[in-house]
User: Fold alanine transaminase from Microbacterium nanhaiense.
Amino acid sequence: SVSMTALRTLDQSAKLQNVLYEIRGAALAEATRLEKEGHTILKLNTGNPAIFGFEAPYQIVRDMLRAVPTAHGYTDARGIVEARRAIVSRYENVEGFPRFDVDDVYLGNGVSELITMVMQALLDQGDEVLIPAPDYPLWTAMTSLSGGTPVHYLADENNSWQPDLEDIRSKITPKTKAIVVINPNNPTGAVYSREVLEGIAQIAREHSLLILSDEIYDRILFDEAKHISMAQVAPDLLVLTFNGLSKTYRVAGYRSGWLVITGPRDHAAGFLEGIQLLASTRLSPNGPGQHAVLAALTGVQSIDALIAPEGRLTLQRDVTWEGLNAIPGVSCVKPEGALYAFPRLDPEVHEIHDDKKLIYDLLKAEHILLVEGTGFNWPTPDHLRVVNLPEPRVLAEAIERLGNFLASYKQ
Ligand code: PLP
Assistant:
């Protein structure tokens, strides 16, 4: 006879306890359920240009397609040398960016994979990493998953969301190993000043911190904003710079990112061997996506038209920013870069105790999906993130509906 054993309960691992990623959390599951019921949901939860009518640049598609028949093998764990050479050239054109060579470049399946690899290679239990609040939450999640402790430093909304250097200093302990900089910033749209970047570099110098600089929006800049890389102000320090094609070239689905290592490294040989080991264990980045990097970096830079004064992304940034500031009790710092706005709901006007519930209630009432500020590790329930990717008309209507909803919303 066949005996039946009760199936053992499978819970998620304890490692995931502090791993949060609300951008694709419960509210998205509810949005998907509403869509199955036949509703149309305006999904402003991810910075995914493709779903808002942004096409992949023709040249990237053409060159990648040409390469596909011969891109079927595993490659070097760092990626194909032609693409890494294109990355070296890209930064040679950035004045003051420290020199590096092809062996200092890793391609990855998006910046996301590289963040995961670097945190796993770097952290031991209890090691602290300084991460901005608000942040792009993968940095916090991967710090936790890797056994580290995320320690959040504040960006100052009253100072155009620039990082607060005093707050950074006050949070350094003997266990602080690295500092994460996200510039231009997701979710605030801030582009950091030279003064602030130099201040961060100085703190890193004094406390021997590794600098991890996420610059995926470095070419998405509005008005007069200028981007300065951390590596430019800290050529004497070990800096890992992360970037990729998802945003600037609107091909997030090709999963193409890179990591560049600059500065002194004799003191970090073990850590860098760890990155090489983890890159090797995943064999190689996807082949076609590497050819997309080569095509993108050597081709026409079509982002320039989108961020020109009358360019689509600039107009959308304006519509979002103006629309949000027109809502009573809502204020929004003007985004200088990236694809988002991070408005504040004045607690005197809008008493929100649970911003996750606000997002859920907005979704149900208006069929608009945003992400709550606490999903970006912001400490208080008084912010939201809006994605500036839909056409101006769609954005304007969504923000008007948000305003109408907030006018009568109570918790
Ligand atoms: N870093 C930041 C700041 C982002 O906003 C994103 C995506 O939104 C990523 C990294 C991940 O990008 P990728 O598509 O290269 O994995």
Q: What stands out?
A: The first helix runs from residue 26 to 36.
